[in-house]
Design brief:
The structure is a homodimer of 211-residue chains.
Chain A lengths: L7 H19 L4 E2 L1 H8 L3 H9 L5 E2 L3 E3 H11 L6 E6 L3 H7 L2 H5 L2 E8 L8 E2 L2 E5 L3 H7 L4 E4 L3 H13 L4 E4 L12 E4 L2 H16 L2
Chain lengths: 211, 211
């Protein structure tokens, strides 16, 4: 497959292309040149051509890109043409916010289960999904062949939880806990460290004031 | 100032150093060699030395780094030795989750106001802060000289909101809306595009299965 050769830097840019192409699709745009896309996305046309050349080009000289085709191809490369089941561990505000994103459902991420260690939450519902005791997580993940676990729990709980998830065959962890997880290589981890992001913002405020 | 020369790549790594140094500090560790830090953080000792050399080194040959000193210096570089006031626009689950992070308060980010356009939320409280109508945002930001606005609203509302924020003198926007904002250069923007992150995870699941 062509995507095996693609660098993580290019991959990191694909969701943004996908987002803009989705907007164009919604507006009924059928074709777009790399220059037009460059103007909207504020990246150079040459960067766009280079990125798209990684998976065969997608376009014809002087003709532009077919928006629908490009959208579909990128969705295949990103693996969002298939469904991915997920559970959320930690049914607090962050867990609820994530479960509520309609975008995720649209992109094939199917919210199947929610777990918490707070008995007051057991039986309450997040988008028709019942919150269950966290002790039931392992059975649930195994039985339902869950692919992705979203960790929205404190960092001291996240480390042992990641080990349990590894044991019951999870494929990927989307980690919001403020800690780096150690898991076997066959488990994909994507971290969202919100504090890190806020600190970068603080750095940039500081830098701007001192220039 | 030394930090003017530091590349964004190094800056991007600073919050992680800061996090690990904070953990070491909590454990009472006073000194650490670049090799020990390398073992914990899973980056090369040479990378650590290079990164720290950007701001004067911080260490003595064969002696290691003073954990407290390094922690304080990085906190100054990141601008989190000062207080930064923030408001949250969008008092849904995500806004509430962000307001609830005690870590942010500890790092000098002071939560001053919350705004929403849903009348049912007016007067309800998020951590002692009353949710106000979004129409009152501009006055509030001006009067209280708010530095950071956190946008946890849908993307179609985020674009006009960013323009309003620019007009009332905000310094930075922490943007959770699934859209790239266009603001003047004097406003710092840090995006947290959750869908992009989830798509990268999906790509990596796919890639792993196909290798």
């Amino acid at each position: 497959m062509a995507d095996k050769e693609i660098s993580q830097a290019v991959i990191g840019r694909l969701p943004r292309y996908f987002r803009y192409l989705g907007d164009l699709k919604e507006k009924g745009v059928e074709r777009i040149s790399s220059q037009e896309l460059s103007d909207i996305m504020k990246v150079t046309a040459s960067q766009i051509r280079q990125d798209f050349n990684n998976f065969g080009g997608f376009g014809q000289q002087g003709y532009g890109y077919n928006v629908n085709y490009l959208y579909d191809e990128i969705s295949k490369i990103l693996g969002i043409d298939k469904q991915h089941s997920l559970v959320i561990i930690g049914a607090g505000h962050l867990g609820k916010a994530i479960a509520g994103y309609t975008n995720f459902t649209r992109r094939g991420f199917v919210f199947k289960g929610a777990f918490d260690c707070n008995p007051e939450l057991y039986g309450t519902k997040i988008r028709d999904v019942e919150v269950r005791p966290v002790d039931e997580m392992e059975d649930f993940v195994r039985k339902n062949q869950i692919e992705i676990a979203v960790l929205t729990i404190p960092k001291d709980q996240a480390v042992p939880m990641a080990h349990k998830l590894a044991e019951c065959g999870i494929k990927a962890i989307w980690n919001f806990a403020h800690v780096d997880l150690e898991v076997p290589n066959n488990i994909q981890v994507e971290n969202v460290h919100l504090s890190d992001s806020l600190m970068k913002l603080s750095y940039n405020i500081n830098r701007y004031e001192n220039t």
